Amino acid sequence: MAIGIVDLEQLVRSIPGTDCARTEDGRVIALPSTTEQVAAVMRSINDLGMTVEIAGAGTKRGWANPVRTDIVLNTRRLAGVVEHSWQDLTATVGAGTPWAVMQNELAQHSQFVALDPLWPQQARVGGIVAVNDSGALRSSYGSLRDLIIGMTIVLADGTIAKTGGKVVKNVAGYDLHKLMTGAFGTLGIITEVTFRLHPLPAHTRMWSAASRDPDVLAFLMMKVRESRMNVRAMQLRASMQACALDIELASLPEVVAPQIERLNVLARGCGGSCTVQEDLATDLFGARSHIFGHDVVVKLSVMPTAITAMVRDVLQLGGTAVVQSSGIMTIGFRESTAINALPYLQEYVERARGLMTVLQARERPHPEWAMLPPRMGTADLMRRVKQQFDPKATLNPGRLMGGI
Amino acid sequence: MLNAAILNELRAAVDGADGVQATRGLSGLISTESQLKTYECDGLTNFRVMPGAVVLPRTAEQVQAIVKICAKHKIPFVARGSGTGLSGGALPAEGGVVISFSRMNHILEIDIPNQRVIVEPGVINQHVTDAVSAYGYFYAPDPSSQSVCTIGGNVAENAGGAHCLKYGFTTTHVLGMDVVLPTGELVTLGSALPDAPGYDLTGVFVGSEGTLGVATRIILRIVERPETVQVLLAAFDSIAQAGQTVSDVIAAGMLPAAMEIMDRLSAHASEQAAHPNYPVCEALLLIELDGLPAEVSAQMASVNEFCKKNGAWEIRLAQTAEERGLIWKGRKAAFAAMGRISPNYIVQDGVIPRTALPEVLEKIGHMASEVNLRVANVFHAGDGNLHPMVLYDQAIPGQEEIALDLSYRILYLCVDHGGSITGEHGIGKEKQQAMGYMFTEPDLETMQRVRHAFDPENIANPDKVFPRTKLCGEKTGPYTPHPLEKAGVAEFF
Fold first, then answer.
1. What's the whole-model pTM score?
2. How far is Cα A155 from Cα A136, in angstroms, rounded to an integer?
3. If you ran DSSP here, which 8-state letter would residue A165 be given?
């Protein structure tokens, strides 16, 4: 059913409390401030057979397939910490809350959501969950899906559903919040998220080893991974100019101090090729966001044992990488280099039986997003899930890989 | 329901068209009534339903063939591991097929450098740890039944255990799996690698209680064994004192491997059953810390101070691995031990926010007094998971109904305090009616969308998890001993 732009704006404005704005290309942006308003918008749009793009701060809109919809629903007014049960180490937060704002509020009780996503000042909770972002803290605290214990979602037809709860231990019903995490907004609109929290560490120390030889640092990374030290975060930064292994330790001062010395011994055992620095003040773990200054950004997942060889391959292809010990690599290329490098990289990844996705590039769509990796039958099942949740393909249609 | 032709199809699926396996006395099909009785219930023994057949496949292809037969004839099927579940999740569908995984019990791959193990679903939980302990690793989820329960069952129920406070539940440790969908398709969910693209179908499959399909190959994450483990036992005059100690430990920023509280009744029963030499007290607190020696020692000193501050009158630190083992043996025997102090009992599995513990326990006490019943309490105090055990005597007319009613009111009390009706036992058959108290119709309808995507014909473990109309005269809940248990050849966990 066709509807004019003016009608659409009136429709949004007719929902009490919902604001309206325009995108640069003139599309209507609905700005609801409650879950109920989101549901009202969705009921109207879905009934009209129109399509909706879900947006927050827009920091990761370039990830996955682009979508062109009739209307944009922005969740930024669903902001604020709804409840912080600090004695129970849980918090419920509106999806439009900027990540840093949430963390600042939780820090008043020396707690935090143990995740270090990209661009925390701008990026909002809903978007971070929708793309399943995570950083170097993942190896010690788990992935995002392990930190979410409940969620409120609005489906394409306006159904409001709660999943999980506000207690950490809970096996009642299906874990729909896991399904929503990383779904790129194709199954429902996340309006509230309940997190399990961790105490902020009372004492941390930074240690970093630089070397021109990435093999040495990758070897060191694996050694530390197996060492049972109190590693809170660890990453390998690798470029053709320089490489470094950054480690943050967290525990009691008397526990951390000998571990720093142990790291120094391990580094010295690498044949004198490492230059060690302790207690650096710089935010070294922001390095992943700097990768996005490149024209083309690729995310790889490989087994930890494949990291050394893959880092070597990436550098030979002219890439710059930030590597987590879990095997997740964020790699940047200049446009001119990427054209030649990506086919080789894809070959190397396939050889390592890894996974590769393009997060950022000037040319869209990418063949990597257009097809699912060769896992048995999964694409059909994902389409059936999408069909059940959003039969009219109203929400972010085609955004997920495989055009789901 | 299963006629001879269907039984022949099932036999061919598991024995081969030539029936070679059967001629060697190794048939994978059970259809005689006397043998089927073994499978008529799981750990929730008061529910008993006779299946039409039990099949014992050896390969994923055989599982796929079985499920295709079920799909073709619209026959309900239920997967079964060791049958230790406490909510009736493996209860057969009447006249349907039970797929038993006792023959798919192989560890397929151990990859120590990448900290992964690949198993078939019939592998016993403890055997995974046994296989990797020589390398300094362990498999973290440790339900009390870990010496007999299977990984497949753990995946279905999202099993926890005392140590999931620190290490997480089964879902944290399952990276991916091969699954036969109820349509007969064999699919791979997730990956051994982090962040497999697309929907997190592994995450939604774990804990779905067998309603979305059957796992045939599971990729597990293993964890490095900590260098040091210390277990402290402290005796208090009240649950409130023990609970405050737990809160103090959490507030100090510590994350113990486990924190358990037993009340007087449960500690007394465990003492009789396992002789762990527990002090006689109103509340017994067990705290396990693990990690590096210097860190554990410093934290244990703080725990000790918290215990003293809150009135602990006896504090014991286990000095040897044997002492630690004995303390835990008493705790893990708590359910089974109830049989020593009561003819019958109902085990519940509610969860509350940790801070609501004193208030909820006081209310449970009042509710029990009002109906003249005793409730023993064992709980994973760190994460608020209560296991109230309602004690009663079936021989007293009307008491079972009162006990049942009390057990459900306890679950509703948990929900009223912002908690859940199950922390680790699952919904299964037992608590499906209580789902409507915890979730709204739209919540449940949204879950059903997932089920329809996986199982459009509703043949995978049907009539479980979700509420349904209660049948006239239908009973739910109490524990009654299995004949094998009565005969003393099996134990209830």
1. 0.93
2. 32
3. -
Look at the block and give the residue holding tokens 């009209």: A48
CA A75/CA A31 separation, integer angstroms: 6
Mutate to test the interface with B, among A106, A110, A138, A174 (most CBs of B within 10 A): A174
Please tell me the predicted confidence (pLDDT) of residue B23.
62
Q: Check CB contact under 8 Å for A169 and B438.
A: no
Residue ranges of chain B whose pLDDT lies below 50: 469-478, 493
pLDDT at A358: 86
Q: Do the Cβ atoms of A172 and B427 come within 8 Å?
A: yes
CB within 8 Å: B200 and A198:
no
Interface test mutation site (partner A, options B109, B449, B452, max chain A beta carbons within 10 A) = B449
Q: For position A339, what pLDDT does the model report?
A: 87
Cis status, amide bond into A304, omega within 30 of 0:
no
Q: How far is CA A381 from CA A277, B197, B299, B327, B401, in A?
A: 50, 14, 48, 47, 44
Domains identified in chain A and CATH numbers: 1-200+373-404 (3.30.465.10), 204-369 (3.40.462)
Nearest one of A58, A56, A68, A71 to A13, comparing CA atoms: A71
Instruction: Measure the CA–CA gap between A78 and A75, rounded to whole angstroms.
Output: 6
Residue A173, C-beta contacts closer than 8 angstroms, at least 6 positions apart:
A163, B427, B435, B438, B439, B443, B444, B447, B465
B354 with A88: Cβ contact below 8 A: yes
| B chain contacts of residue A222, beta-carbon cutoff 8 Å | 113
Average pLDDT, stretch A340-346?
Answer: 91
A326: nearest CB among B194, B204, B421:
B194
φ, ψ (nearest 5 deg) of residue B459: -110, -10
Closest approach of chain B CAs to the CA of A323, in angstroms?
13
Which has the minimum average pLDDT: A82-86, A222-226, B72-76, B417-421?
Answer: A222-226
pLDDT tens digits for range B253-264:
888 999 999 999
What per-residue confidence (pLDDT) applies to A8? 86
Helices B293-309 & B239-251 angle (0-180, nearest 10): 140
Non-local (6+) Cβ contacts of A87 within 8 A are B247, B250, B251, B354, B355
DSSP codes joined into one string, A42-59: HHHHHHTT--EEEESS-T
H-helix segments, B33-124: 33-36, 60-73
Residue A31 neighbours by CB distance under 10 Å = 20
pLDDT tens per residue across span A371-392: 445 555 788 999 999 999 999 9
Of B169, B193, B427, the CB nearest to A301: B193
Q: Which residue of B has its CA nearest to A152?
A: B443
Residue B14 CB-density burial (10 A; 0-12 exposed, 13-18 middle, 19+ buried): buried
- Contact call for A304 and B435, based on CB within 8 A: no
DSSP A64: S
Helix (H) or strand (E) holding B262, with range, is strand B258-263
Interacting residues of B237 by C-beta distance below 8 A, sequence separation 6+: B281, B282, B283, B311, B313
Find the closest chain B residue to A202 by CA distance. B253
A152: Cβ contacts below 8 Å, ≥ 6 apart: A35, A160, A161, A162, A163, A190, A191, A192
CB contact under 8 A, B442 and A161: yes
Q: Please state the rounded mean pLDDT for residues A59-63.
A: 87
A34 touches chain B (CB under 8 A): no
Most B-contacting residue of A149, A381, A382, A396 (CB-CB within 10 A), to test interface: A381
B200/A384 CB distance under 8 A? no
The DSSP secondary structure of B364-405, one letter per residue, reads HHHHHHHTT-EEEEEEEGGGTEEEEEEEE-TTSTTHHHHHHH
Q: How far apart are CA A127 and CA A145, in angstroms?
A: 14
Token pair recorded at residue B288: 């396990």
pLDDT of res. A369: 45
